[in-house]
Specification:
Elements lengths: L5 E4 L1 H8 L3 H16 L6 E3 L6 E7 L2 E10 L5 E10 L6 H22 L1
Parallel strand pairs: 1-5
Antiparallel strand pairs: 2-3, 3-4, 4-5
Length: about 120
């Protein structure tokens, strides 16, 4: 199957993943790989009213989340900004704000590099 996009991880996203137990890391990697080839809102979902997307993994009753955004300028990339363990029904506003700030900084840096 063809991948719909490639995932690029920020240092913070990698640090989050690397801090997790091995089985949780494997489940997250599996779910992200799966979401790259099939559309499944249970695994990869746009957060309402934002440009932020959420990779979703449930493992051993723990809700792991990696927030991300799209960059489709040259290749179709999804940039994973950071991760957290979700403890409430709604995604915390501070986590969305953090991802949006990282998205803004990413595109500003990209614009500066073109000059």
């Amino acid at each position: 199957m063809n991948e719909r996009f490639h995932v690029v991880y920020s240092d913070e996203a990698l640090a989050f993943i690397n801090s997790l137990p091995q089985k949780a890391k494997e489940k997250i990697a599996y779910n992200i790989s799966k979401s790259m080839v099939i559309t499944d809102n249970e695994l990869f979902k746009k957060l309402e009213g934002t440009e932020i997307w959420e990779f979703r993994t449930l493992y051993n009753g723990i809700k792991y989340r990696l927030l991300a955004f799209w960059d489709t300028e040259k290749d179709t990339l999804v940039i994973a900004t950071h991760g957290f363990i979700k403890k409430t029904q709604k995604t915390p506003a501070k986590e969305i704000a953090k991802a949006e700030a990282m998205r803004k900084e990413y595109f500003n840096d990209k614009k500066q590099q073109k000059k």
